[in-house]
Amino acid sequence: MRYASQKTQIGFTLLEVLVSVAIFALISLASFSLFDGVLKSEAVSKAQMTRLNEVQRAWMIIERDILQIAHRSMRIEGEAADKNFIRTSFDGYASSDNALAFVRYGWTNPGLLIPRSDMQSVAYRLDDKQLQRLHFNFVDSVVGEEPKIRPLISGVERISFEFYYQKKWQKTIEEGRLPLAISIILDTEDLGVLTRKFLVAGESEATQTETRRL
């Protein structure tokens, strides 16, 4: 009796190899997409955190200044001082009325070692979609002196201010008086409208009422 010889084939067919390569490619693509998504999510989170820190730092600086507003008018480029302690429209710091300026106490100068006052004239303005803090080395700036500029918040479309007098908010300041609080409204490109209210260490409501009666 004759038996036919059979040879056992070991290996993969071309179809099996193609299917394996396709499965490996799909797994690699899914892994890459997942990894890329994680990286993008991390980048977005970092950008958002940086943005929020920028805004929070700006609010802290503004609050520090407003809490130390002085009962002192300011002179810009040698002009005569007026009766207002707060200014919202002027040419020395900005060419528009999107600005707020005043004199504050507490500019550190131990023992008056630096030839300047411990008071500081500061202003906040919107310039090219950037909220900036400005100040001069001296309380009353001289003609031609350029202010020091500190960028605070970028991407700001509009800025407006409101002032709290006699239990109500209003858009104008009252001559010769400090408000009880100041509200700053920022319209930003990415965060929408941001509003922050700051207390002013100035006159009490009782004092304002008595002054109004007089």
UniProtKB/TrEMBL annotation:
Membrane topology, from the record: Single-pass membrane protein
InterPro entries given in the database record: N_methyl_site (IPR012902), Pilin-like (IPR045584), T2SS_protein-GspJ (IPR010055), T2SS_protein_J (IPR051621)
A single cellular component GO annotation: type II protein secretion system complex
Pfam families in the record: N_methyl, T2SSJ
Subcellular location: Cell inner membrane
Entry keyword annotation includes Metal-binding: no
Keywords linked to the UniProt accession: Cell inner membrane, Cell membrane, Membrane, Methylation, Transmembrane, Transmembrane helix
Top-rank taxon, per record: Bacteria
SUPFAM superfamilies named among the record's database cross-references: Pili subunits
Any GO BP annotation: protein secretion by the type II secretion system
TM segment ranges: 12-35
Membership in a protein family: Belongs to the GSP J family.
Protein name: Type II secretion system protein J
Biological source species: Thalassotalea piscium
Phylogenetic placement of the source organism: Bacteria, Pseudomonadati, Pseudomonadota, Gammaproteobacteria, Alteromonadales
